[in-house]
Amino acid sequence: MSELLSIRDLTVPLPATADRRYAVEGLSYDLAMNEILCIVGESGSGKSMTANAIMGLLPPNMRPERGEILFQGQDLLKLSEPALESMRGRQIGMIFQEPLSALNPLMTVGDQIEEVMLVHKVGDAAGRRARVLELLDFVGLPDPKSLRDAYPFRLSGGQRQRVVIAMALALEPALLIADEPTTALDVTTQAQILDLIRRVQRDKGMGVMFITHDFGVVADIADRVVVMEKGLIVEQGTVDQVLNRPQHPYTRRLIAAVPHGEGRQNQVAQGRPIIETRNLKKTYRSGGGLFSAPREVRALAGVSLQLHAGETLGIVGESGSGKSTLGRAIMKLMSVDSGQILFRGQDLVPLSPSQFRPMRRHIQMVFQDPFASLNPRQTIGRILTDGPVANGISHASAAAKARELLSMVGLAENAFDRYPHEFSGGQRQRVGIARALMLDPEVLVADESVSALDVSVQAQVLQLLKSLQERLNLAIIFITHDLRVAAQVCDRIGVMCQGELVEEGPSAQIFDNPTHPYTQKLIAAIPGRNWDPTTSLTERVDA
Amino acid sequence: MPEGDGRNMKSLDFILRRLAKAFFVVIGVVILNFLLIQLAPGDPAAVMAGDAGAGDAEYLAQLRAQFGLDKPLPVQLWNYLSGVLTGDLGYSYRNQLPVLDLIMDRLPATLLLTGCALVFSLVFGILFGVIAAWRRGGVLDSTIMFGALLFYATPLFWTALMAVLLFSIKLGWLPPFDMETIGANLTGWARVKDIAWHLVLPVVTLGLFFTAIYTRLTRASMLEVMGQDFIKTARAKGVPKGRIIRRHALRNAFLPIFTFASLQAGQLVGGAVLTETVFAWPGIGRLMFDALLSRDYPVLLGVFLITAAMVVLVNLIADLLYRFVDPRIEQGA
């Protein structure tokens, strides 16, 4: 097999202030023509750093200390900036994680694709424009002619990612580097983009370096796999070896943490629901003037659901399905157009803010972003006690409760006097959970609360939520885009699509016997469906 | 093309609505100024009478009646407003001229000065800002940012006085004041050159302050844009650095600069009081300054009205231009 890319002993030091010495250390691996190599690891493992080193796009304060990056036999680390420039885009193409920000907002899609050919002086103006149409068509975008002159903001995330891919493919590079290209996309869009990358790779015989944190994606797309932890390669091999017979403890731990379809043993909830919504409706309106009708988006189109004490109800759906609107409506963080929200039989919808205020403590929220949802200028103690103090509880007893909860969510006692920036993402999310619990709520709304976390941290936080629920008999509304997570932690799952709850039932049933076509489509799009992480770990025990 | 029609309708809708809003804003400003000015101490009739050298009560009453100052306030306001709506901004007691004529006489000089200063500061501010961002952390960056801080922190009138002292009095290179050489009666090309020569000092002094602001704004905006993902995309495409700066970074960094420039442009009429006073520039700023000293209220009100109308008009134009600068902006949305 001809090696396209050989990395030998690549070592890149981190700036002196960092918490470890090397971004990557002693990295060696090969990538052949016509294969997809997946680099897997959690955040901070150095997986993106390698890609940047190959492209010569490392930050100026980071220079490789030793090693070589051989691309078609030539050491990229020895090339001058102009030589690298002429290689980027022509022989090595790259696609990125965030399709929403990867395109220049002030340049048309066509101009941005054409620019690759322009700066590499390929073809004449007419030829380039024709090629743009060809590429837009090739990556499966509708109506290339009108799309060429559109600005990126007109396109959806998935469409923009296709544009970025078209740009990377324009000059048919031998190597394509894809850095988490589907992480920011909805699951059905992700499935389409993965298909596209596979098809492109086969058609053009390219080598693809695919960076991801998602083992499901690895199972779907990889030929070979490299697993990285803290700048080191801990394991590499074929996809079958690494996924089904993992050797290194870190790989095994990662795989064990992958959420999988095994629904929890749920008992059918009895009695009166603690929260019930009836035919909840909300339409967003924007714009409109003397001569134009306002734009309307139906966020909730008559949603009815029930939630019992001690139960977890999952709300899954793609972006724009209305799932977050539902959570915010139940929290009364926004008004609804019609319908009822019954809390212990009392309708919350007609309550004024002052009437609702004493009830707010019963329904609390855990937010998505552990970084943005904590005030960086307040200590954890202040963050936790603000709510109770505002509700008339004395400082002393609020502080005592805060310390108790901090230990309950697995944080050290001294966290009370520290500031959010001193904690990792997972720890901050624990703070967020503790904050939500400060007022002894009966209902928790968790909106994408583990989505921003690495898979191993995610597993810990999910475990924490579950044990807290058992201890406190909490009812949880768990909003997520990740069906695998929902299947693992929820008793029942509701599937939302365009403001409607299209299907609802016990997790196992939704997962194994979905009846609504949309649910079936969602389930089919889950990456790594044919790979069961539990068997890879049990097999090892058998062996 | 139904979609194009819809777009045009939307723009028309937007412009009409904005114009209606603008009209009420300007009327509001007129009313507010009219009422505020009544609070100022001093009686215009007394000033006029003093100028005429006859301060007796009868003459004062006569003056008040002549200018309608004896009527109740709402009536005075109504008279003034209906005048404004027919293009009559009142009569200057002091200059014995209609206010509108006075303002129109002074407006060109002010627009010339502030317009040139705006162009000067935009051109050099963006240039220095881009260079500073490109050479971030280097000697050039430090030098530019030091200069920007210096001119930003120095009071405008001080810069102006020092410039006159150095370039006019010490070196004798440039004329120290006024817009033209007095008594030269130049015509044609010679006159243009003469005015240009007189423009240099006031434009540079006024412009340097804004250059400093644009330099800092451009640098900050450029650095922010250079850190964004699409710049990395461009680099990954193999786009050379110069083209990245020109085609990708600067165009995006220009958006906040444009916003600030449109705010500044709105104040072109009234914003140069200090500079015009120091350089004895025969513009609106000077007119306002003199009117203030002599309690020439109709002139003051007229200047305020023109200034407010200008701000509102320029903002409207800027909002319309914004859609060309940034395709994401849709009017009415």
From TrEMBL, chain A:
InterPro entries xref list: AAA+_ATPase (IPR003593), ABC_Ni/Peptide_Import (IPR050388), ABC_transporter-like_ATP-bd (IPR003439), ABC_transporter-like_CS (IPR017871), Oligopep_ABC_C (IPR013563), P-loop_NTPase (IPR027417)
GO molecular function, one term: ATP hydrolysis activity
SMART domains per UniProt: AAA
BP terms from Gene Ontology: peptide transport; transmembrane transport
Xref: Pfam families: ABC_tran, oligo_HPY
Domain ABC transporter: 5-255, 275-523
Superkingdom in the source lineage: Bacteria
SUPFAM superfamilies assigned to the protein according to its UniProt record, in alphabetical order: P-loop containing nucleoside triphosphate hydrolases (SSF52540)
Positions in coiled-coil regions: none
Location relative to the cell: Cell inner membrane
Membrane topology: Peripheral membrane protein
Listed GO CC annotations: plasma membrane
Listed CDD domains: ABC_NikE_OppD_transporters (cd03257)
Alphabetical list of PROSITE patterns matching this protein: ABC_TRANSPORTER_1, ABC_TRANSPORTER_2
Protein keywords: ATP-binding, Cell membrane, Membrane, Nucleotide-binding, Transport
Record keyword Glycoprotein present: no
Family listed: Belongs to the ABC transporter superfamily.
NCBIfam families for this protein: PRK10419.1, PRK11308.1
Entry protein name: ABC transporter ATP-binding protein
Native species: Paracoccus amoyensis
Lineage: Bacteria, Pseudomonadati, Pseudomonadota, Alphaproteobacteria, Rhodobacterales
